[in-house]
Amino acid sequence: MNTPHPPDPRDRPARLSVGVVGAGRVGPVLAASLQLAGHRPVAVSGVSESSVRRAAQLLPDVPLVSPAEVLARADLVLLTVPDDALPGLVEGLADTGAVRPGQLIAHTSGRYGAKVLDPALRAGALPLALHPAMTFTGTAVDVQRLAGCSFGVTAPDELRMAAEALVIEMGGEPEWIAEESRPLYHAALALGANHLVTLVAQAMELLREAGVAAPDRMLGPLLGAALDNALRSGDAALTGPVARGDAGTVAAHVTELRAHAPGMVAGYLAMARATADRALAHGTLKPELAEDLLGVLGGDPEGPAT
Where is each DUF2520 domain found (predicted)? Predict the structure, then answer.
């Protein structure tokens, strides 16, 4: 009689028990999305009141347990903690024997690839890096927003299909990112998304100062069109006084900002210089107009414009 071989964990059944370590804005949303695809959330860990409340809203009836207990119950574990906490968490779970051979361990950090999961890999786990390129509110609306969302995926070659399949089941679009490119990939996303929020908030603040009653309503169509144009046309979408070389207008902007929002002057000058460089390179800003403009932009953020 032939002794049956133990099953290869890569040939596991399609439906997985799912656990979440770190009930921040991302983990419960991804688990809820996987639940819609037929997987089964079985455990979640969280400490803060907001984490407990979020888990209860998005994963009702899923027990709140310790991280080690999450790993004991789940076939697929989502590590959704802040980037700086991830290496220590992985090492701690591996050192305490919480990681099981054949277990899928996936983190959602943009900064790290699969290598940060090496301690879990040495314990027999299957490492995946699945980073959704989206901002999260931690509410049910995020589950719908995952449809068409790109995920930065990094994993060993033999797990590539499994990683991409999980992303597709969440409604996302897998985008393969090489291990060594993860920090650059993440910097690009932070530059675009995080700084966009700051810029929009600053613009709304200035519009209120200028007496606009509904700055969000005023900015919505403008920024929506600017984003669409930029995604379609890149540098060809540049408009405004910097791209036109209107040095006098830019100088007036700087004067007003120094009077009403001095903390925004340095950021305005930095972005205007970057815009001028791109407009020059693209040919939108004519060289004969650039000298006066760059003279204005070369001014001291703390002092009068030159």
Answer: 149-275
